[in-house]
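Write out the bound-state structure for xanthosine-5'-monophosphate.
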Amino acid sequence: MSDIHSERILILDFGSQYTQLIARRVREAKVYCEIFPFNAGLEKVKAFRPKGLILSGGPSSVYDSGAPLIDKTHLDLGIPVLGICYGMQLLTHILGGLVAKSQKREYGRAELIIHKNDGLFFGIDSKLQTPNSELRSVVWMSHGDRIEKMPEGFHAIAHTDNSPTAAMADEKRRFYGVQFHPEVAHTPQGTQILRNFVYTICGCKPTWNMASFVDYSVGEIRKAVGDKQAVCGLSGGVDSSVAAVLVNKAIGKQLISIFVNNGVLRKDEAEKVQHTFKDMGLNLKYVDASSLFLERLKGVEDPEKKRKIIGNTFIEVFEREAHAAGGAEFLVQGTLYPDVIESVSFKGPSAIIKSHHNVGGLPEKMKLKLVEPLRELFKDEVRAIGREMKMPGDIIDRQPFPGPGLAIRILGEVTGPRLRILREADAIVIEEIKKAGLYKEIWQSFAVLLPIKTVGVMGDERTYENVVAIRAVTSQDGMTADWAKVPYELLGTMSNRIINEVKGVNRVVFDISSKPPSTIEWE
Ligand code: XMP
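---
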């Protein structure tokens, strides 16, 4: 089997918020790439066997004390190099040019005047009206320093009003630098520029696609697991589901997928998950531990305590069931690429701390080896793999759902009657959002049961009952979020239905707070 990873680009990260976007653009061009921290070391870089190197942007100035630098030997690999923003300044600095503070910071939209539309700028057409048939293209700038003197061998290939050297090239060594960010959407022709680098300058062929990834992974998983057994904690969420289906494709019945009902799942969720995965031929073990979880949650109001109880109980149940199923040596996890790069980022783990990991500690505790078939993928690539494997849209396009489930959406104590109320109300919210065709564009939409009662009137009678809040947010990654502008009509329908159909609720409110400062979940 051909190695789908043989055509590949390496991105060295110097701390830009856009580094992941560079990777996305390269992969969209069907060329495999990875991000290493700038200080990964020459040996690791060489071992990756890249056909080209991209130096990302970054917030530093090359003259800052503690600025991230690389050794010149990184440029002696005989492969093309593209420096973006800080990466370009670094290239200049290392190769003997001069970087200086610009008089004026250049931030935002700029018009790039391209000297010749070939090489890096092949196929860039002037979308702008210009008096003297100049080739102009809109780009996104974000820099304080500029190139004062290019290193020997380089010449300017584009400029802006403020930067005489907005892009430079040394075609002989195949070294390029751009002061702007081709990876962001605000540089409309940026994708073409990156593709020119990857295809024409580095000579990569577009071989990276989902079908070849599935084939490749199946082979790798078989090699790693051999004839041993693996277990997987299936939650019904996208990541663990795609990981399980992929591993199932590789080793079939050697994989036991364990689905634990923790008592705080949504309406009909346990049944749906079982149905779906049995239909897909998974060796599924369903464990109804709901009474154990609910017993332990009795009287608990503190959200962090709820999380701990649910996390620990999950580990306990999972461990017991995995042992009962026979001696597995491997644990399948749906770790994604953003988690991997976050944890190796040179900024250290403090940059983004995942406090939401519910199964942390499982592999060490159970002495299991990890199988993480999705650790090279971004979320939408995981969805594409799922589609490639013909998984139902219901699973692939699912909104995220937290491990502690409805327990952190019932403010205060989790009891049977309160769970019933929230489940019914939540099912109405989801049903109506889906009916309105908004389910996919909304990141998460759900109901929350508040710990207060309010007065209402139903018929001739005064009521004193529960309040349900509707939460709906749009987001890219859950780190920041905006409240979704759900149409009034739809809010009205949801409110009416909840009050009429869910016994025990006489008031519905809509949450109009963004994250930050509010969080997505109420607890
Ligand atoms: P917050 O509420 O922090 O949520 O804005 C961000 C994202 O994380 C999910 N979330 C959790 N997921 N265990 C999980 O597996 C948790 O304890 C947990 N708390 C929040 C939340 O649903 C949102 O997608």
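---
DSSP finds 15 helices and 18 strands in the chain.
The longest helix spans residues 303-324.
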